[in-house]
């Protein structure tokens, strides 16, 4: 039987990409509100409570309002915002990052879609901390660049009009980015990581890097041990690839990259074994948002988890 889906925020960057991934799928029927009604409270309330699945692609406050408006106990919700990512009543929608998470998502009514940067960070770090190969009490650093679609319609507009000369934009300079609690909580870290994000002149894509001075970290495994552990953790995953070849000479993010729902992980050790660079590459609108939402929807609906995803 087909399931009905209401994307609240369907006209936004994440919402449009979700609709794109659902197009042509017989398993789902979209409930759509026309432009004049998409922010109309009564129309939204009806759609939210009629749908089998709601996907919220809204700013945090609007997402909280939509959740409060959804009184039907049979409507299941996936929220793409930051509002519920560390709320214990919500299943964290990152199926691969720890054992049992896919099953939690499958049976949950409420699923929070991870942030794009935390997907890269947790994809690299969480399995290694859980395996005891790197310490939970190390003060980690995360250096990351994102395509400008990561900031939604407002940042796209800025990069494509008034800010058309911006090549690189460092931000989060107050060291209080909203993704830090999510990274700390789901990796089980003692200290908040230092997070240094930036935006570059590419529409989509991101590189999230965690440099580790292995020789200074008591009890840390070697680069090979870290890579092997990630390789074993993600074995058989159609979405996450741990690259095991020798260090590439460069990793490129293209200005006009095609959409992708993959997560690619690299463990690059120094010749003397004292240092390692853990690097995640993903599409902020793919595994970082819309691809992850569709993957979660598939899991919740009991379907092939990769249906509609772009994995080539
Ligand atoms: N872009 C990305 O890479 C990622 C985004 N996210 C998160 O996903 C959510 C959506 O982000 P994104 O798509 O980028 O943002 P956009 O700004 O591109 O889109 C948000 C959409 O929500 C609409 N909207 C705002 N308030 C309401 C409301 N009360 N009722 C109905 N619609 C409303 C906006 O309307 P209008 O068009 O009129 O402004 C807009 O179309 C955010 O929480 C974001 O943080 C998460 C991971 C990655
Ligand atoms: C480039 C850019 O601005 N990126 C966004 C994060 C995008 C994302 O992951 O969305 P959430 O806000 O839902 O976590 C930011 O740093 O706020």
Automatic annotation (TrEMBL):
Subcellular location: Cytoplasm
GO molecular function: N-acetyl-gamma-glutamyl-phosphate reductase activity; NAD binding
BP terms from Gene Ontology: L-arginine biosynthetic process
Pathway assigned to this chain's UniProt record: Amino-acid biosynthesis; L-arginine biosynthesis; N(2)-acetyl-L-ornithine from L-glutamate: step 3/4
CDD domains listed in its UniProt record: AGPR_2_C, AGPR_2_N
A Gene Ontology term for the protein's cellular component: cytoplasm
Family: Belongs to the NAGSA dehydrogenase family. Type 2 subfamily.
PANTHER family referenced in this protein's UniProt entry, alphabetically: N-ACETYL-GAMMA-GLUTAMYL-PHOSPHATE REDUCTASE, CHLOROPLASTIC-RELATED, N-ACETYL-GAMMA-GLUTAMYL-PHOSPHATE REDUCTASE, CHLOROPLASTIC-RELATED-RELATED
Main function: Catalyzes the NADPH-dependent reduction of N-acetyl-5-glutamyl phosphate to yield N-acetyl-L-glutamate 5-semialdehyde.
Protein name: N-acetyl-gamma-glutamyl-phosphate reductase
């Amino acid at each position: 039987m087909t399931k009905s889906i209401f994307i609240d925020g369907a006209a936004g960057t994440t919402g449009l990409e979700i609709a794109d991934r659902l197009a042509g799928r017989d398993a789902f029927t979209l409930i759509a509100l026309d432009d004049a009604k998409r922010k109309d409270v009564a129309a939204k309330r009806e759609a939210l409570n009629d749908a089998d699945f709601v996907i919220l692609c809204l700013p945090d406050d609007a997402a909280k309002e939509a959740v409060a408006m959804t009184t039907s106990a049979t409507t299941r919700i996936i929220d793409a915002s930051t509002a519920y990512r560390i709320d214990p009543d919500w299943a964290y929608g990152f199926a691969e990052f720890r054992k049992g998470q896919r099953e939690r998502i499958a049976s949950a009514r409420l699923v929070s879609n991870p942030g794009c940067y935390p997907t890269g960070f947790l994809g690299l770090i969480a399995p290694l901390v859980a395996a005891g190969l790197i310490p939970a009490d190390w003060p980690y650093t995360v250096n990351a660049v994102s395509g400008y679609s990561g900031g939604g319609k407002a940042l796209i507009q800025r990069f494509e009009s008034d800010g058309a000369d911006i090549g690189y934009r460092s931000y989060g300079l107050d060291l209080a980015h909203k993704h830090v609690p999510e990274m700390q909580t789901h990796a089980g870290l003692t200290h908040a990581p230092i997070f240094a994000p930036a935006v570059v002149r590419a529409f989509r894509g991101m590189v999230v890097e965690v440099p580790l001075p292995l020789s200074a970290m008591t009890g840390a495994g070697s680069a090979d041990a870290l890579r092997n552990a990630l390789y074993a953790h993600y074995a058989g995953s159609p979405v996450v690839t741990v690259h095991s070849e020798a260090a590439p000479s460069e990793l490129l993010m293209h200005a006009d990259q095609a959409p992708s729902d993959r997560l690619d992980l690299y463990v690059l050790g120094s010749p003397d074994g004292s240092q390692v660079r853990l690097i995640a590459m993903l599409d902020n609108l793919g595994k970082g948002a819309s691809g992850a939402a569709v993957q979660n929807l598939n899991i919740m609906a009991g379907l092939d988890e990769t249906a509609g995803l772009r994995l080539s």
